[in-house]
Write a structure and sequence with these properties.
Elements: H1 9-17, H2 20-30, H3 44-54, H4 60-67, H5 71-82
Length: 84
């Protein structure tokens, strides 16, 4: 196996943060492609389900931080879940 310093920049970062084996596997799977990762990690369906299960009437801020939404957006989601 090569040293981490032998990898190109992005693969060095992956090797340091995750593992050299993961960097090699990502290269194998996606070499030559440009990849854009969405800012949102979770699907809309998951977020709605999670909020439905975990909203307690006082945790809008906690939910908004968790999903990277504004408080206003979380309140809109809550309204659509419970009133719409």
């Amino acid at each position: 196996m090569s040293e981490i310093s032998d990898f190109a920049d992005i693969y060095q970062e992956i090797a340091r943060k995750i593992s050299p084996e993961t960097a090699v596997e990502i290269h194998r799977l996606f070499k030559g492609q440009q990849i854009l990762f969405p800012q949102k990690l979770y699907s809309k369906e998951y977020i709605y389900h999670y909020i439905r299960q975990h909203y307690n009437g006082r945790n809008v801020r906690e939910l908004s931080v968790m999903f990277g939404y504004s408080d206003r957006r979380v309140r809109q989601i809550i309204k659509s879940i419970f009133c719409g």
